[in-house]
From TrEMBL:
GO terms for biological process: peptide catabolic process; proteolysis. Gene3D superfamilies: 1.25.50.20, 2.60.40.1910, Neutral Protease Domain 2, tricorn interacting facor f3 domain. It is a peripheral membrane protein. GO terms for cellular component: cytoplasm; extracellular space; membrane. InterPro entries: Aminopeptidase_N-like_N, Aminopeptidase_N-like_N_sf, ERAP1-like_C_dom, M1_APN-typ, Peptidase_M1, Peptidase_M1_aminopeptidases, Peptidase_M1_dom, Peptidase_M4/M1_CTD_sf. Residues 85-301 form the Peptidase M1 membrane alanine aminopeptidase domain. The keyword tRNA-binding does not apply. Binds 1 zinc ion per subunit. Signal peptide: none annotated. Keywords: Aminopeptidase, Endoplasmic reticulum, Hydrolase, Metal-binding, Metalloprotease, Microsome, Protease, Zinc. This is Aminopeptidase. Its EC number is 3.4.11.-.
Length: 722
């Protein structure tokens, strides 16, 4: 009951040698032999779900904010050194949020604790934030660059909750998205301010595209879901509450302007401090401060599921635009939105903004977008930098001009991402051809930016998977084409880190090497295996630093089988012996990445042993390859009783959402649906619906690809290009 706030005054009796923490600092402690009694200071008013007690053997590192708040990171004995990075981000976050919300951190201290067994990633308890070890600890020697980044984001997210969630709390779980969407958005704001070289807002588009993907399903749900009982809330801790929530906040902030938005947030914080608020209260404050129709605009985004695709057609000096709800299954929904449209043309300094309130409207572009004659520099792009939560479908002339702008390096990084992501989604929905998607992708060869290539990689993975099912005869050529797109940036970076290279290049190297291994690029696989063999003899070798290990591990798994299992056994040994949480999870994530039935089953069965924590099972499941889907599905059916007994709440959804969407046929969807007809639980009902819908969408996409004329010719033409 988040609205029932109270002041808490706690007393604990614990073994004398243990550290005992709670939300507030210790008032006093008395000792009686082996037991100590610890009394904590009284807390300000807070919701019950934020009360926390942590007792254990810990050591800590400590810092101080500019206003004198003590910040500590507690770890298991011997690991406190790995808490320094999170401590630094924590202190900086408290300083930044105090200014952003114009409200001081309300408690005298903040503790962050790394906990070995913890089902959630992290939890924002007031003044005593708990984390999985891998979400809080960072070691310069043994951690990867991507883990440095995710620790920073997680810490900034949980500390944002100290204001948005803890000081001002949602009135009821229906408004969960306010907590999670806002903390997700503002954590990027914070990390961007601490590490501008990470380009974190460009990476944020990962969250937006994840949400766009889920929200284009019939089985999606609105940002605000009526929650009737607290037990239902588990199901909405998903990409809609977090990622769509954060994306529509980014859209609103971009529409209102950063300064007006921040001032309004500070007023909201002051008005509702130590009490509760609902979504409408936030809109009311923003509307009063800015004079903009925030409530009408935002209600269309929070109260209905889905989002529009904006169809853009050029007529004379106008661009006619029309909105329609976008669904991946190709059907049309009846949703209508108030859409903040942004457009740029010919250059980024001629941007226009307007609110599309109707189904159709038009924008006058005149001649400022460049010369429309063939070979002119004409182009126009809607949804500049992806700040809007919608997709755009261009007519042929506009699409060709945009592809030309891409190939002549006119587009920003964010617009390169939006352009490919929109066409990818439109291709799945069969509103654009598969060939046009391949042609556009080909325009990205030679791209060198991490965020852009991370999206290209998502698309190429999906294309490799669908083409194996849709056009097996062409699948090999399509893989060669995808390798051709990714190879040159991968060769530039090589396997070895370079002195002084950027954080983003350090993250790009494993991304590309892993992608090439998965596409079956022989040279990369052989090099990965070679380096791995040296690594097994000498763990300290500089040939396989933490960042590139995953690619080498995957390369090894490409050749593993029941009769040739030395590589697999070597990986299992690393998993058992490594003291590094991150490295263990790296290995766990690829043990099932194999085509051999025996090895896949052996790996999946580890889930039922003490070797794998329940909270980590999903990592092992994520490694399953499409080639092993039948084996995995049969395994799931045979072990379902045991799985439902062993895994609670959100942990059980992982089994459904990793295995079911590997299939691409309607027959399989029917079989899976029948199996679960008598076995669903409210906890994963929605996930199952979404997963089955994804199977049917893939089946429809595959059918479209099969019947597409001229596809083979397009693939051959692109392969033959220099």
């Amino acid at each position: 009951e988040p609205a029932f706030k109270a002041k808490f005054k706690l007393t604990l009796e614990v073994p004398s040698e243990l550290v005992a923490l709670s939300n507030m600092p210790v008032g006093n402690a008395t000792f009686a032999g082996p037991i100590k009694t610890v009394r904590y200071l009284e807390s300000p008013p807070m919701s019950t779900y934020l009360v926390a007690i942590v007792v254990g053997l810990f050591e800590y590192v400590e810092g101080m904010t500019t206003k004198g708040t003590r910040v500590r990171v507690y770890t298991q004995i011997g690991k406190s050194n790995q808490g320094k990075f999170a401590l630094d981000v924590g202190v900086k976050s408290l300083n930044l949020y105090k200014d952003y919300f114009d409200t001081p951190f309300p408690l005298p201290k903040l503790d962050m604790v790394a906990i070995p067994d913890f089902a959630a990633g992290a939890m924002e308890n007031y003044g005593l934030v708990t984390y999985r070890e891998v979400a809080l600890l960072f070691d310069d020697k043994s951690s990867s660059a991507s883990s440095r980044q995710s620790v920073a984001i997680t810490v900034a997210h949980e500390l944002a909750h100290q204001w948005f969630g803890n000081l001002v709390t949602m009135e009821w779980w229906t408004h969960l998205w306010l907590n999670e969407g806002f903390a997700t958005w503002v954590s990027h704001l914070a990390v961007d301010s601490f590490f501008p070289q990470w380009n974190i807002w460009t990476q944020f588009l990962d969250s937006t595209t994840t949400a766009l993907r889920l929200d284009s399903l019939e089985a999606s749900h609105p940002i605000e879901v009526e929650i009737h009982h607290a037990s239902e809330v588990d199901q909405i801790f998903d990409a809609i509450s977090y990622d769509k929530g954060a994306s529509v906040i980014r859209m609103l902030q971009s529409y209102l302007g950063a300064e007006r938005f921040q001032k309004a947030m500070a007023s909201y914080m002051k008005k509702y401090a130590f009490s509760n608020a609902k979504t409408e209260d936030l809109w009311a404050v923003l509307e009063k401060e800015t004079g903009e129709p925030v409530k009408d605009l935002m209600t269309t985004w929070t109260k209905q599921k889905g989002y529009p695709v904006i169809n853009a057609k050029i007529k004379g000096d106008d661009i006619e635009i029309e909105q329609a709800q976008f669904l991946l299954d190709g059907s049309s929904g009846s949703g209508m939105w108030i859409v903040p449209i942004t457009s740029g043309c010919g250059a980024y300094d001629t941007q226009k903004k307007f609110l599309l309130k109707l189904k159709r409207d038009k924008m006058v572009i005149g001649s400022q977008c460049g010369d429309r004659k063939k070979g002119g520099n004409f182009w126009t792009k809607l949804n500049i930098n992806g700040t809007g939560f919608y997709r755009v479908k261009y007519d042929d002339e506009l699409a060709a001009a945009l592809q030309n702008a891409l190939e002549t390096k006119k587009l920003s990084l964010m617009d390169k991402i939006g352009t490919v992501d929109d066409l990818y989604a439109l291709s799945i929905a069969r509103q654009q051809t598969f060939a046009s998607l391949l042609r556009l992708l080909y325009g990205y060869r030679g791209e060198a930016d991490y965020s852009v290539l991370s999206h290209i990689n998502t698309v190429t993975t999906s294309i490799a998977k669908i083409s194996a099912d849709a056009t097996p005869a062409l699948a090999g050529d399509i893989k060669q084409l995808l390798i051709k797109i990714l190879l040159s940036p991968a060769e530039k970076l090589g396997w070895d880190p370079k002195k002084g290279e950027s954080h983003l290049d350090v993250m790009l190297r494993p991304l590309l090497l892993t992608a090439l291994v998965q596409l079956g690029h022989g040279k990369t696989i052989n090099e990965g295996v070679r380096r791995f063999n040296i690594f097994t003899r000498d763990r300290g070798t500089s040939l396989l630093p933490p960042d590139t290990r995953k690619a080498a591990y995957l390369a090894v798994m490409q050749n593993v089988s029941s009769s040739n299992r030395s590589g697999y056994d070597a990986l299992r040994k690393i998993y058992k012996e490594s003291a590094e949480g991150e490295e263990r999870l790296q290995v766990l994530g690829i043990l099932s990445s194999c085509r051999d039935k025996g090895i896949v089953l052996e790996s999946l069965n580890l889930i039922f042993t003490s070797e794998v924590r329940n909270q980590d099972a999903y990592i092992l499941l994520r490694g399953i390859q499409p080639e092993a889907r039948e084996i995995s599905w049969n395994w799931l059916k045979e072990n379902w009783e045991l799985i439902s007994k062993t895994f609670a709440g959100s942990l059980i959804t992982d089994f459904v959402e990793t295995i079911v969407p590997l299939f691409t046929s309607n027959e399989k969807a029917a079989e899976i649906s029948k199996f679960f007809a008598t076995r669903t639980k409210p906890g994963f009902e929605r996930t199952l619906k979404q997963s089955l819908e994804n199977v049917r969408i893939s089946a429809r996409w595959a059918e479209g690809i099969r019947s597409e004329p001229g596809l083979a010719q397009t693939v051959r033409e692109l392969l033959a290009k220099p």
